[in-house]
Specification:
By secondary structure, this protein is α/β, with parallel strands linked by helices. It is built from 13 helices and 17 strands. It is globular. It starts with about 20 loop residues before the first helix and ends with a helix. Bound molecules: pyridoxal-5'-phosphate. Pyridoxal-5'-phosphate binds near residues 183, 184, 209, 280 and 321.
C-alpha cells in the first residue's frame, strides 16, 4: 500500500495501491484507485490530475504503469486527455448507473422558497462588507488575529454593546457581552453552562425551533412545553422550572409579542427564584407598524441571558451571534468557551465591528426593514384579494407570517400542493414540540426569495391556496 505525497506538479493525489505485484497488476491497481476516487466524488469533475511522471514518482512505481492507467480510464470515459494539456477528470464521468443514487423527487430542492427562518441572502451587502473588512484588517493589531479572548474581540464587544443599548434597549457593557458563532452555538454554550450549574428543567415555547430543543436536550436538560396564545408564552407551571427559553419580541414562529404583563411575570419569577430566562431576540430589529419592542432583558438584567444574531439582519453564513450574560454566569461561560474554542472567526468579528462603528449596520437594517415591509404588505394584500377567507396572524414584524387554513384543510395537503408547483412552504405543526398544531396553518417566510423571484413565488402560493 502507498500514499502519494506532493509531486513535481504541486498536486497531491491520495491513492491506495498494491505495489508488490507485477506491472499489469500495479497498473490495474492505479486504475481501480482512480475509478473509485472519481465515482465517489473524491475527485470532482474537471479536476486536473498530476502528470504521469510526477504521480509515478510519488507512488514509487514505473511511469508507464500510471500512463497506461490514465489511457485506460480515458478510454472508459472517466478521464479526458487533450494533446498538450493535463489529464483531467471528465465533466460527466462514466459512472456506472448502479452507483448513481436515484433522484428522489421528495428530496429535490424546490425552485421557489417561502420557508421561514431566512433573510434574502442575495441582499447581503457584499461591497460594503468588503470595504469594512479592508478597513478593519488594515488597522487590526496582529494579536487580534491570534487565538482570541473566549468572549470575543474587544473591538466587536465595544461596538455591539453600544448598538444593543441604543437600538434594542439592552442593559449591556462590553464586559458583559460574549461573541459566539451564531445564536445556535451561543445556546449550546448556555445550555452546557446551565447544566453544569445544576439546572435540570427548562420551559420552551410549545412552538419553536426543533434544533434548539434538540440542543437543550443534548445538554441533559429536561424540556417542559409552555403553551403559546395571543399574548405569547403562557407563564404556567413556572415553579417546576429552572430556566425558560423565550422569543419575547416576536414569538417564533407564531408571530405574537409577549405582552407587557407576561414579560413582568416571567421577569419577577426569575428574580424571585434565581431562575434564568434565555431571551432569543432573533429578529427584533424588524417591526413595521410601530417601534420595535425593546429587550425583556432590561427588566431583569441579572436573570436574563439576552441572545442576538446577525443571521437575519445580515446573513446566516456569517455565523455571528452574541450573548449578554448576567455577571454570575460570565466566568463559567468564558471558561467553557476557552475549552471549546467554538468562537466566531476573528476577521468577521473585526469586520462587523467596523460595519457597526461606521453606521453601515444601521443603514443596512433600515433598508432591509423597508424592503421586508413591502414584501409583507404585498403578501397580505394578495391574500386578502385572492383568498379573503384565510386569516393572516402574527404581528407586522420579522421575516415571516402565519396563514391560517380553513377548518378541515390539512397542512400536509397544502404543502404537497405547493410542492407540485415547485414551491417550498412549512406547516405550523412542524414547529410544534409534539408535531401537532391547532388550527392548521402555514408559516410563510416572505424574506426568503431573491427580489426577482418574489412575484412568481407569491403567484404560486396564491394559486396553491386558491385551489384549497
Ligand atoms: C427562533 C430563531 N432563533 C435564532 C435563529 C438564528 O440562529 P443562528 O444565529 O444560529 O443562525 C433562528 C434562525 O433561523 C431562529 O429561527
Amino acid at each position: 500500500m502507498a500514499n502519494s505525497r506532493a509531486n513535481s506538479a504541486g498536486l497531491d493525489l491520495h491513492l491506495e495501491l498494491r505495489r508488490d505485484l507485477g506491472r499489469p497488476r500495479v497498473r490495474e491497481s492505479v486504475a481501480t484507485g482512480l475509478r473509485e476516487a472519481v465515482s465517489t466524488g473524491r475527485l470532482a469533475p474537471g479536476t486536473t490530475l498530476p502528470p504521469s511522471r510526477a504521480l509515478a514518482a510519488d507512488l514509487g512505481i514505473a511511469r508507464n504503469s500510471v500512463a497506461e492507467a490514465y489511457a485506460q480510464l480515458v478510454a472508459e470515459g472517466w478521464l479526458v486527455a487533450r494533446q498538450g494539456s493535463a489529464t483531467k477528470v471528465a465533466d460527466h464521468p462514466a459512472i456506472p448507473s448502479a452507483r448513481v443514487k436515484p433522484a428522489h423527487t421528495a428530496d429535490r430542492p424546490l425552485r421557489y422558497d417561502l420557508r421561514a427562518g431566512f433573510p434574502d441572502v442575495t441582499s447581503f451587502p457584499r461591497a460594503e462588507w468588503l470595504a469594512a473588512a479592508r478597513a478593519a484588517l488594515a488597522k487590526a493589531p496582529p494579536d487580534s488575529l491570534s487565538y482570541g479572548p473566549p468572549a470575543g474581540l474587544p473591538q466587536l464587544r465595544s461596538a455591539l454593546s453600544g448598538y444593543l443599548a441604543r437600538a434594542r434597549g439592552v442593559r449591556v457593557t462590553a464586559a458583559s457581552l460574549a461573541i459566539c458563532a451564531g445564536f445556535t452555538s451561543g445556546l449550546a454554550l448556555v445550555a452546557a453552562v446551565l447544566a453544569s450549574y445544576g439546572f435540570r428543567t427548562i420551559g420552551v415555547e410549545a412552538y419553536g425551533h426543533g434544533r434548539h430543543r434538540a440542543l437543550l436536550r443534548d445538554a441533559g436538560l429536561q424540556l417542559v412545553p409552555l403553551p403559546v396564545d395571543e399574548y405569547g408564552a403562557v407563564p404556567a407551571g413556572l415553579e417546576q422550572l429552572d430556566a425558560v427559553l423565550l422569543t419575547p419580541a416576536h414569538q417564533f414562529p407564531v408571530g405574537v409579542a409577549l405582552s407587557p404583563d407576561r414579560r413582568a411575570q416571567f421577569a419577577s419569577w426569575a428574580a424571585r427564584t434565581g431562575a434564568v430566562i434565555i431571551e432569543d431576540d432573533y429578529d427584533g430589529e424588524f417591526r413595521y407598524d410601530r417601534r420595535a419592542v425593546g429587550a425583556l432583558q432590561a427588566l431583569a438584567p441579572d436573570h436574563v441571558i439576552y441572545a442576538g444574531t446577525a443571521s437575519k439582519t445580515l446573513t446566516p453564513g456569517l455565523r455571528l451571534g452574541w450573548l449578554v450574560l448576567p455577571a454570575r454566569l460570565e466566568p463559567h461561560a468564558a471558561e467553557r468557551s476557552s475549552i471549546t474554542h467554538a468562537q466566531a472567526a476573528a476577521v468577521e468579528q473585526l469586520t462587523l465591528a467596523e460595519f457597526i462603528e461606521t453606521g453601515r449596520y444601521d443603514r443596512h437594517i433600515r433598508r432591509r426593514r423597508l424592503e421586508y415591509r413591502r414584501r409583507r404588505d404585498r403578501l397580505v394584500a394578495g391574500l386578502a384579494h385572492r383568498t379573503p377567507e384565510l386569516r393572516v396572524s402574527g404581528m407586522s414584524a420579522g421575516l415571516h407570517t402565519v396563514v391560517n387554513l380553513p377548518d378541515g384543510v390539512a397542512e400536509a395537503e397544502i404543502i404537497d400542493g405547493a410542492r407540485s408547483r415547485d414551491l417550498a412552504v412549512d406547516g405550523l405543526a412542524s414547529y410544534h414540540i409534539d408535531d401537532d398544531s391547532q388550527p392548521s396553518a402555514l408559516v410563510i417566510g416572505y424574506a426568503t426569495p431573491a427580489p426577482h423571484a418574489y412575484s412568481t413565488t407569491l403567484a404560486r402560493l396564491f394559486t396553491t391556496l386558491g385551489n384549497t
